[in-house]
Amino acid sequence: MAAKTTTHRTTTAKPRTPAKAAKQSASAGAEDRAQRRVERQSLQRAARRPRADAADRGDAGGRLFVLALARGLEVLGAFRAGDRALGNQELAERTGLPKPTISRMTHTLIQLGYLTYEARSATYQLGARALALSYAALANLDVRKAALPIMTKLAEDSQLHVGLGTRERLMMLNIESCESDALIGLRLPPGSRVPLATTSLGKAYLATIGEDERSALLAELRDHHGNDWPKIEKSITKSMREMARGGFCLSTGEWRKDINAVGAAIVPPNGGPVYALSFGGPAYLVSQQQLIEQHGPALAHAARAISAALGG
């Protein structure tokens, strides 16, 4: 019997013609550009803040939101009281923006006078136009005008620090401070920031704002504080009861172990943002009993007087 012979055929791919290769390359390039466009739009949507008329619907976008402007303001907002100058690395860490973006933002802000540049140290400082804005904001702040004489008297009578603040994200920003003549005491100048969740200033604010705003802030604080949150949440709940009962709340060693303080809220009768007052000093000079019996009632009375003055 004759053996069968099997023939194997080898199939060789035909080379692409130049026209076909160019068409495929153009198609791939278009797909890449489309993907990059989708990713860029996604990042922009994630960075947007809610519009006022969309907040109740949970809409996280906003067609009027200008991302470049927001990034420039983030750079300006990175500067804190006590900062002499900041470099690109520090600005990137504080804002979460990439260094190339920081470079573009700082260049623009320098040209507009909001930042100045020190070539020897390669660092930036707030410029004259930024300072003019801050001074104008303070000068036109009605609550500061109403509070200052009352705060000054409290500080002189008690020899303790008295501060006035408002919320800035998850911090409280001091917008006015009155310090005693005592050699040892708490020093928190205007422009300094303290935590929202663990200070008397912040807890008085949290206890007074509306339920919706408070719920949103508590959710952010929970994520921010992680494993420490159960203890902090318990303290905030206690402070809310204290505020309802006596108009003031305590912070004894929560922010700093050596600092005791009491807080109260200022609510403008005609509407507007809630502010808070704090009153405190070193723990060995200010006992919890003094806060409850003396300083707390005095601060609550001062907060009501300031609120009434704003109504007038």
Automatic annotation (TrEMBL):
Q: Where do the HTH iclR-type domain residues begin and end?
A: 66-128
Position of the signal peptide: none
Per UniProt, the keywords (alphabetical) are: DNA-binding, Transcription, Transcription regulation
Could you tell me which SUPFAM superfamilies the record lists for this protein?
GAF domain-like, Winged helix' DNA-binding domain
GO terms for biological process?
A: negative regulation of DNA-templated transcription
Q: Which Pfam families match?
A: HTH_IclR, IclR_C
Provide the residue span(s) of the region labelled Disordered: 1-56
| Domain of life per record | Bacteria
**UniProt feature, compositional bias: Low complexity:** 1-29
Do you know which InterPro entries this protein is assigned to?
GAF-like_dom_sf, HTH_MetabolicPath_Reg, Tscrpt_reg_IclR_C, Tscrpt_reg_IclR_N, WH-like_DNA-bd_sf, WH_DNA-bd_sf
Start and end residues of each IclR-ED domain:
129-312
Q: What is this protein called?
A: IclR family transcriptional regulator
- The organism of origin for this protein: Rhodopseudomonas palustris
